[in-house]
């Protein structure tokens, strides 16, 4: 029994060391991406046309960071959300269309707010804000309910939607162009799912855990609180380290 426990412990330590090395490799690729892009952007300063000298690729994968959230070295910002788009056959969604749903509305009746029913990222941030703030019971009872909402519900939810927008728009992010047809086997899906699985601390010895002040610790979903990511899908899955080379190849092609 002691020998078996020793083997299991040695295997566990080996897995931790392998994951730590893969995380370092992953963040090295993101640093190369950051240099290629000339730094991170924030959605609060982004529009659909891109910026001076650059435009959004039609397809890609994005990586959000968060002020105050660092890796264990205390210097490197840690990724807090990975996302993409057009991973289901027939989808025509572009990278900017997905990012703009996270950003929320700039004009119109609900300017400054957004629609969390069209962005699961906004939905999760909103549940954490609800847990830490004083909001009317009417908002607590409707947030995340239904695929659409009427004018009265939208009006009641608007102040919270504005806070969600303000929070997300301050978060730095990087993106990488990843072209290819829509589908679950697309390179975008492979990079997203494996990056989340690598970064997730759920049911694992934590590496680069969130800070004690991270808002995600108040999110409704345990997957977010325990993974350290604003992601729910893929946080319990194993990862294939080959995805790092795939990601690096797309970074090199930009």
Give your account of this protein's structure:
- This protein is α+β, with helices and mostly antiparallel strands.
- 45% of the residues lie in helices and 6% in strands.
- It is built from eight helices and four strands.
- A four-stranded antiparallel sheet has the order 1-4-2-3.
- The longest helix is centred in the N-terminal third of the chain and has 36 residues.
- The protein is globular and about 55 Å long.
- The termini are far apart.
- The model has no long low-confidence stretch (mean pLDDT 93).
In short:
By secondary structure, the chain is α+β, with helices and mostly antiparallel strands. It is about 45% helix and about 5% strand. The protein has a four-stranded antiparallel beta sheet.
List the helices and strands and how they pair.
Elements: H1 2-37, E1 41-42, E2 60-64, E3 81-83, H2 95-103, H3 120-132, H4 137-142, H5 151-169, E4 172-177, H6 187-199, H7 222-227, H8 242-253
Antiparallel strand pairs: 1-4, 2-3, 2-4
Characteristic terms for this protein:
4 strands, four-stranded antiparallel sheet, single chain, 45% helix, 8 helices, 254 residues
Largest sheet: 4 strands, antiparallel
Tell the overall outline.
globular
Radius of gyration: 19 Å
Major beta sheet, strand line-up = 1-4-2-3
Contiguous low-pLDDT stretches (5 residues minimum) are none
Secondary-structure class: alpha+beta
- Amount of beta strand: 5-15%
Question: End-to-end distance, in Å?
Answer: 53 Å
H/I helix tally: 8
Tally the beta strands. 4
Query: Which range best describes the helical content: under 10%, 10-25%, 25-40%, 40-55%, 55-70% or over 70%?
Result: 40-55%
Q: List the secondary-structure elements in sequence, H or E.
A: HEEEHHHHEHHH
Mean pLDDT, nearest integer? Answer: 93
């Amino acid at each position: 029994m002691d020998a078996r426990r020793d083997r299991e412990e040695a295997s566990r330590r080996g897995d931790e060391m392998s994951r730590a090395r893969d995380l370092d490799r992953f963040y090295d690729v993101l640093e190369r991406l950051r240099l290629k892009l000339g730094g991170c952007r924030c959605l609060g300063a982004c529009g659909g046309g891109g910026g001076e000298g650059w435009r959004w690729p039609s397809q890609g994968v994005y990586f959000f960071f968060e002020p105050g959230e660092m890796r264990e070295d205390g210097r490197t910002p840690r990724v807090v959300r990975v996302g993409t788009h057009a991973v289901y056959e027939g989808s025509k969604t572009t990278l900017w269309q997905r990012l703009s749903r996270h950003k929320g509305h700039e004009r119109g009746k609900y300017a400054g707010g957004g629609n969390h029913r069209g962005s699961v990222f906004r939905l999760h941030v909103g549940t954490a804000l609800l847990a830490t703030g004083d909001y009317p019971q009417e908002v607590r009872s409707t947030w995340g309910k239904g695929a659409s909402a009427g004018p009265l519900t939208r009006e009641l939810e608007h102040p919270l939607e504005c806070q969600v927008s303000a929070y997300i728009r301050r978060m730095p992010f990087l993106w990488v162009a990843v072209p290819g047809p829509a589908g679950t086997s697309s390179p975008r899906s492979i990079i997203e799912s494996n990056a989340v699985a690598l970064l997730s601390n759920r049911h694992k010895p934590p590496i680069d855990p969130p800070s004690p002040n991270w808002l995600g610790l108040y999110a409704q979903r345990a997957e977010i609180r325990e993974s350290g990511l604003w992601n729910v899908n893929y946080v319990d899955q194993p990862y294939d380290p080959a995805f790092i080379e795939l990601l690096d190849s797309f970074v090199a092609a930009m």
